[in-house]
Design goal:
This protein is mostly helical. It has 5 helices and no strands. It starts with a helix and ends in a 17-residue tail after the last helix.
């Protein structure tokens, strides 16, 4: 009986480790690597000088961190909506308030970007960021991604 229990426990723990391992060819998400890929893509698309990049990316990364935190808060609010009509109403209002705050945050940071990078380059960064995320989503669907050999970045017209 002890052998059977031991064997069952070993199988259970082995399955847990196996279930968490990435599949063949699949890589785990690396936030630092992703940040570098974004910075390289945006720098190239907007033709940022090294001085402009040094001034811009600390602001950009700060904004993205605050947006992530707000997104996590929205997610948390959505997970616990309450159990009556009033609670749902309060949840909807809270989500809307957080989204408005996120838009104001972005507006404030865009103004700060314009102080360190010319407006044309900020615009190109906005376009390039949209394109970068679009390519990432397509890559997750098996249709492309940042590692694919593509033509030079062409902003959408």
């Amino acid at each position: 009986m002890k052998k059977w229990l031991l064997l069952t426990l070993m199988m259970f723990f082995s399955f847990g480790v196996w279930a968490q391992a990435p599949e063949r060819g699949e890589r785990r998400f690396n936030p630092e690597q992703f940040r570098k890929m974004v910075e390289e893509s945006l720098t190239k698309a907007a033709a940022l000088t090294s001085d402009e990049a040094k001034a811009f990316f600390p602001l950009y990364n700060e904004m993205r961190q605050k947006q992530r935190e707000m997104g996590e808060e929205i997610h948390k609010v959505k997970k616990e909506p309450g159990n009556d009509g009033n609670a749902y109403s309060q949840t909807v209002l809270k989500i809307n308030q957080l989204k408005v705050e996120m838009a104001k945050l972005e507006q404030d940071y865009y103004k700060r970007f314009l102080k360190v990078v010319p407006a044309e380059k900020v615009f190109k960064i906005i376009q390039a960021e949209d394109e970068f995320h679009r390519r990432m989503v397509q890559g997750r669907r098996g249709k492309g991604g940042p590692d694919m050999k593509k033509k030079e970045h062409q902003p959408r017209k």
